[in-house]
Amino acid sequence: MRKKLIAANWKMYKTPDQTREFFREFLPMVAGHDRDEIVVCAPDIDLAAGLESARGSKVAIGAQNVHWKNEGAFTGETSTAMLLALGVTHVVIGHSERRQYFCETDDTVNMRLKAALEAGLTPICCVGEVLEEREAGATDDVLRRQCVRAFHALSARKSEKLVVAYEPVWAIGTGKTATPEIAAEAHMVIRREAGEIFGDEFAARLRILYGGSVKPENASALMAQEEIDGALVGGASLDPKSFAAIVKY
Ligand code: PGA
Fold this sequence. Notes:
α1 runs parallel beside α11 and α7 (139-150) runs parallel beside α8 (180-198). The protein has a single domain (5-247), classed as TIM Barrel. By secondary structure, the protein is an alpha/beta fold. It has helices spanning 16-30, 47-54, 80-86, 96-101, 106-119, 131-135, 139-150, 180-198, 200-205, 216-223, 240-247, and strands at residues 5-9, 37-41, 59-63, 90-93, 122-127, 163-166, 207-211, 230-233. The two termini are 18 Å apart. The longest helix has 19 residues, at 180-198. The chain contains eleven helices and eight strands. Strands 1-2-3-4-5-6-7-8 form an eight-stranded parallel barrel, surrounded by six helices. Residues 9, 167, 172-173, 211-214, 232-236 line the site of 2-phosphoglycolic acid.
């Protein structure tokens, strides 16, 4: 009942020309693919090229971050209004690289999330533990804390579009994928917490993606888990053939 969402996270890769080239190859490979939703989250500089290239297809375009204010003196930031004006529909929020390298906190994740939902964007809110937390047996606590803080003061009614991505930090870009069972367990923790916050009906509809070294070779085993509602794909989404293979798992 939950349609899977397969999302590319390009991170800081590709120019506008490389974006057009990607779509020239990628779109024919996924033409007519209706089983899953597809979104490509690109650097801001590539959004216009992505939207233009994907026009008329079912592939949506997302950003990788968004500010919580509509406009203002915030050098280097992008607002929800700017994304919407371009035609962007999705946005990644709270990716672990932003938490690690750009001082993103649970509080700023919450502010960005609120702004994205109010604007009608589909936020993909990332949570996940680091290796030391997993080894210390703290994974469930970390996930619960990240969810409670990210969803603070959000209502179920206003959060219909919310998507969560479980991305264990130790699996990102490392080639170490969580086993489908480990991922499914973490997804259950997140879904239970979402149930506490938003109610069980909401939690049953909530899509929770897995991210962390998803590749064509492991995508089908991950997607076979009932708890896993899609994927957030970094490295393997840069090549059109490999991303198409993941979409078609
Ligand atoms: P990866 O990145 O697929 O390269 O591990 C996933 C992500 O960071 O979203």
